[in-house]
Design brief:
- The structure is a homodimer.
- Chain A is mainly α.
- In chain A, about 60% of the residues lie in helices and about 5% in strands.
- Chains A and B meet through helix 1, helix 5 and helix 6 of A and helix 1, helix 5 and helix 6 of B.
- Chain A binds a DNA duplex (30 and 30 nucleotides) through helix 4.
Chain lengths: ~180, ~180
DNA sequence: TAGCGTTGGTTCAAGTTCGAAGCAAGTAGA
DNA sequence: TCTACTTGCTTCGAACTTGAACCAACGCTA
């Protein structure tokens, strides 16, 4: 039971650093593979994977953006590329005139299917090799609640779009438009 | 018992997805905080943190790039920004005329010190809150070997710079200059 | 059903990221 | 010590990302 607002001690920092380092390295390796083998970026693959995983083969733009933790405008950009490449289609939603439904095409599914083995190979070699079966189970049962916890709290797209009623995040700094 | 070149089963996929999802969400949250509170990007903070962690307060460019899993040219760019902001200095190495030694300044250390509490707060709230003390220990002991394993295999900058003896990565796709 | 705040997407400008190419300094071998 | 390869870093061009601004469709409520 976490007690009060304690700060990170050495143990915790190690966990945090290891987590970020592992994910960076893994992502980098996967990225290399996807680019070399299918000329896809990591996000693009994620998008296609999520779509092909969906029972309907489609998702709304916003849900995709939240799912892959990406900006909406970034998703618009990527969706345009994927559409141009014939891997997805975009169409207006029947029920909500505003929203755009993204659907994976057969070509998209085929591409995912073609890339998956290599993808899996990379992940296996890097992430799973040093882990036993029990380790995997343990890792999953540790990370899943964390994921849910993170998803539960401020859902990214729930960030208030603060227009009129703008109020600064708190900031000690002036929050310039970046460098 | 896993047999031969098995593919990822559901359990493994879950672990992989959870890992990437958690790190994405965490990184995104941390990024927001760093930007709002100190006008730093995640990489910039990582660079400063690594430097301030070093006994000498300095590192070579390449080592930094490898450390934070970043391209060399990207690091050059970021180093220029950090130098311009007075947070680091760059100087030629005494022993190797080619290499550049990056050193954190007092201002750099001060900034890290100022940002750390908030940083820790974000990480605590998102990552550690749903984990017990034992969970943390377990997570660390799972991820540390993985990190070491990943670091051991192809060290990123060891990628052959293939010049004359160039050979394409294999590609089923034409490997266009990206989209 | 008009008013008003919210939500879904896109566009735009500005900043970032990466790989390829280039250059200089190190290094190994003949 | 000349040649050829390697390594450390920067430059360059092209692609990617992002938040802010915008528009249109929704939803609530009086």
């Amino acid at each position: 039971m976490p007690d009060g607002p304690r700060s990170l001690d050495a143990q915790e920092l190690q966990a945090y650093f290891a987590l970020m380092e592992v994910s960076s390295l893994l992502r980098h390796a996967v990225e290399q593979h996807l680019r070399a083998d299918g000329d896809l970026s990591y996000v693009q693959f994620q998008i296609l994977a999520r779509l092909s995983d969906s029972p309907t083969g489609s998702h709304r733009m916003t849900d995709l953006a939240d799912g892959v933790v990406y900006s909406r405008s970034g998703l618009t950009y990527q969706a345009r590329l994927l559409e141009k490449a014939g891997l997805i289609t975009r169409s207006a939603s029947p029920d909500d005139e505003r929203s755009v439904t993204v659907t994976i095409t057969d070509a998209g599914r085929a591409l995912v299917a073609r890339l998956l083995p290599g993808h899996v190979e990379v992940v296996s070699r890097l992430l799973f090799e040093p882990l036993s079966r029990e380790d995997l189970t343990a890792l999953t049962s540790l990370l899943t609640p964390v994921r849910d916890h993170m998803r539960a709290t401020p859902p990214r797209s729930a960030a208030p779009r603060r227009r009129g009623t703008a109020r600064r995040p708190t900031g000690g700094a002036a929050r310039r438009p970046a460098h």
